Amino acid sequence: MCPLSPSEDAGMEIICKNLAVPERYREFIDGSHRNAVALKTAMVGLGTYQPGWRWSLHAGAQTGKISENHIGYIVSGQMVIRDAEGTETTVSAGYAFEVMPGHDAWVVGNEACVALDFTGIE
Q1: Are 16 and 5 in contact (CB under 8 A)?
Q2: Which residue of 56, 91, 107, 111 sits 20 to 30 Å from the alpha carbon of 75, by its own alpha carbon?
């Protein structure tokens, strides 16, 4: 349990937020979704991506943007990540990853992929 309420943490050096009570929620066109909270220097997201989900089709198509730098951790399931140079790797549960802007990623297999991601706040 977080010992600080949101109103108490404004001037403190410890910020604690629950991803079950997201500040940002995004549902993708295939029913996948991502919750996120903003800390002082980073956004932390928790996404559940359904089998067949692909960033370029289900996220990039909604935003019209290229993918950003992502640091992540796969909680369950797996996804393939292809960097801007075309190199692909499959990332499975228990693995952390970092990929630069311009990448694509997609869920493989019949299981949803649950992943944490971390992006800096400028």
Answers
A1: no
A2: 56
Condensed to tens digits (0 to 9), the pLDDT of residues 28-83 reads: 888 899 999 999 999 999 999 999 999 888 676 666 677 777 899 999 999 999 99
The predicted-structure confidence for 5-20, as pLDDT tens digits, reads as follows: 555 555 668 899 999 9
Q: What global pTM score does this model have?
A: 0.83
Q: List the domain boundaries for the chain.
A: 18-120
Report how far residue 72's alpha carbon sits from residue 79's, in angstroms, rounded to the nearest whole number: 11
Architecture of domain 18-120 in this structure = Sandwich (2.60)
- The answer to whether residues 78 and 97 touch, using CB atoms and an 8 Å cutoff, is no
- Say how far apart CA 11 and CA 7 lie, in whole Å: 9
Strands (E), 18-111: 24-27, 33-38, 42-49, 70-76, 78-82, 88-92, 96-99, 104-107
